[in-house]
Task: inverse folding
């Protein structure tokens, strides 16, 4: 089942079209990476899902219920973490979660139980100072706690890691990964290593449309060249290898770097068959043979080109 | 409903923590106390400063109420509008409401809670100001034969709600504090200008702020205040409804 479906969504600001006929579906229990350049329309899309912005055209369904602008019915299924979450500075984390709990309509015991659980999940359980004195990383973690207070089916995070230092980033990603068993996570980012680390699904947003979408494995299989790296112990071995007649067509798409040779091809299986035959015939023993996976980065660059 | 009550608590704490209530309370209290003393001692102060100036009449209790209505309707309510002019713009600029609204807090509850708390704090401050003027006037003048003192105060208090409703509309429409305050000032100015047009002047809520002294001195009767009071209350309710309607369409 899909937690979120977006159909033919369009939105322009003045003459500038930001989202142009966008279609997207987020399957249940997935960690979904929503990838795009700065200004691609990731935040705009998310705000429309939350009913904070009015779409020009198109339909959005959350848990099979339509999203209406200005109304908040579907938001009961959603937890939202904005890119820079802002809280009431004079409150402590416990007080803020209490306010959120009361807004949702939870009972007192339920609020204190969930607050304790969530604050220890995000590592803020011992913090009693006012939110005004928090670092960005701490605010981001409190943001996750408040977003999960409703026990949402879908957690939407808008660039949760982009402003954080490496330690803060790791903490946020670990938390997101931890909760992914119980909640579907949709998070926008332009940091591709984050996506590779925790996502199982992803979509690339470019020029207001979804350029590529699917599981990470599907995306990698569909796009980009596969490459094979060979490292030789001596330069003679490399030269000898290159002189082999059957290898010649492969050298047209190759890179050479010291004693390393990288071969590019879309049909890796036949390349490998040929390679091992040649190595056996010539008796060359390379020190390393590695099948290189296409990186999301190369895909990203290919998509936004 | 739970959201409304939760947000009322939040608004109340916020107005305590950012000293908004303290300032408002102090302004009304100081002017409440000062009104009686200024009325009583201004002639003496003036004659001490300028020996050759002659005071024509002794100050009376009515002068204290003149001071009260001049100060509260001018400085008191201006302070009220300026202090609460930032009640939504702060939340807009920081984006704190987004998290509340995405948690299912209805936009109606936001406006109603903000209105309720501002109105309650204004009411407390206003009546404390009134009580201090009343107390010191009774203390300084023994022959206190004034009529409709409380009724005159109620009519000015009613206008406070109207000002707040106008301010709420301003706060919803404009993202900056300054423009919301300017908007409120503009509308209030238009209301008082309309008060000069004779055939409709007797229905104008402006009477509630301008004729209080006539009421106390006996030059006006409470009946003259009834229609403007009803109109003022109706406009206040209408203003809140308009603010809610506009806020529902507002992009946060």
Result:
């Amino acid at each position: 089942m899909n937690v979120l479906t977006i159909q033919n969504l369009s939105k322009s600001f003045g003459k500038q079209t930001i989202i142009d006929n966008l279609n997207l579906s987020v399957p249940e229990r997935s960690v979904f990476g929503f990838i795009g350049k700065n200004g691609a329309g990731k935040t705009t899309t998310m705000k429309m899902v939350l009913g904070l912005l009015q779409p020009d055209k198109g339909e959005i369904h959350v848990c099979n219920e339509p999203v209406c602008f200005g109304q908040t019915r579907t938001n009961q299924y959603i937890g939202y973490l904005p890119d820079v979450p802002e809280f009431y500075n004079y409150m402590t984390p416990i007080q803020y979660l209490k306010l959120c709990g009361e807004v949702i309509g939870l009972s007192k015991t339920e609020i204190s139980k969930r607050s304790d659980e969530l604050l220890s999940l995000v590592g803020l359980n011992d913090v009693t100072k006012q939110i005004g004195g928090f670092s960005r990383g701490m605010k981001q973690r409190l943001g996750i706690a408040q977003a999960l207070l409703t026990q949402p089916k879908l957690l939407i995070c808008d660039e949760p890691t982009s402003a954080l230092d490496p330690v803060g980033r790791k903490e946020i990603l670990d938390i997101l990964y931890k909760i992914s068993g119980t909640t579907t996570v949709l998070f926008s980012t332009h940091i591709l290593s984050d996506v590779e680390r925790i996502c199982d699904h992803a979509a690339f947003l470019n020029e207001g449309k979804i350029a590529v979408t699917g599981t990470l494995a599907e995306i990698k299989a569909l796009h980009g060249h596969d490459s094979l790296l060979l490292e030789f112990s001596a330069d003679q071995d490399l030269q000898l290898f290159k002189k082999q007649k059957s290898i010649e067509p492969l050298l047209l798409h190759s890179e050479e770097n010291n004693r390393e040779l990288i071969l590019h091809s879309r049909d890796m299986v036949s390349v490998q068959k040929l390679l091992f035959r040649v190595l056996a015939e010539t008796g060359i023993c390379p020190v390393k043979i590695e099948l290189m996976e296409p990186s999301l980065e190369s895909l990203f660059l290919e998509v936004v080109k | 409903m739970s959201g409304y009550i939760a947000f009322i608590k939040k608004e109340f704490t916020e107005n305590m923590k950012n000293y908004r209530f303290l300032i408002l309370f102090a302004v009304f209290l100081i002017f409440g106390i000062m009104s009686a003393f200024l009325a009583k001692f201004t002639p003496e102060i003036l004659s001490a400063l300028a020996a050759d100036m002659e005071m024509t009449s002794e100050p009376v209790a009515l002068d204290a109420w003149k001071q009260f209505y001049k100060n509260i309707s001018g400085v008191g309510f201006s302070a009220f509008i300026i202090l609460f002019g930032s009640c939504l713009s702060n939340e807009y600029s920081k984006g704190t409401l987004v998290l509340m609204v995405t948690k299912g807090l209805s936009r109606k509850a936001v406006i109603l809670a903000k209105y309720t708390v501002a109105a309650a704090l204004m009411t407390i401050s206003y009546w404390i100001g009134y009580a201090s003027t009343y107390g010191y006037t009774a203390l300084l003048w023994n022959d206190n034969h004034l009529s409709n003192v409380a009724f005159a105060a109620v009519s000015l208090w009613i206008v406070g709600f109207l000002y707040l409703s106008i301010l709420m509309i301003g706060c919803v429409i404009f993202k900056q504090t300054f423009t919301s305050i300017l908007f409120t000032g503009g509308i209030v100015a238009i209301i008082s200008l309309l008060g000069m047009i004779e055939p409709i002047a007797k229905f104008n809520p402006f009477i509630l702020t301008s004729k209080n002294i006539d009421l106390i001195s006996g030059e006006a009767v409470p009946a003259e205040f009834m229609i403007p009071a009803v109109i003022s209350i109706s406009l206040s309710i209408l203003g809140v409804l308009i603010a809610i309607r506009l806020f529902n369409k507002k992009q946060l």
In short: Chain B is about 80% helix and 0% strand.
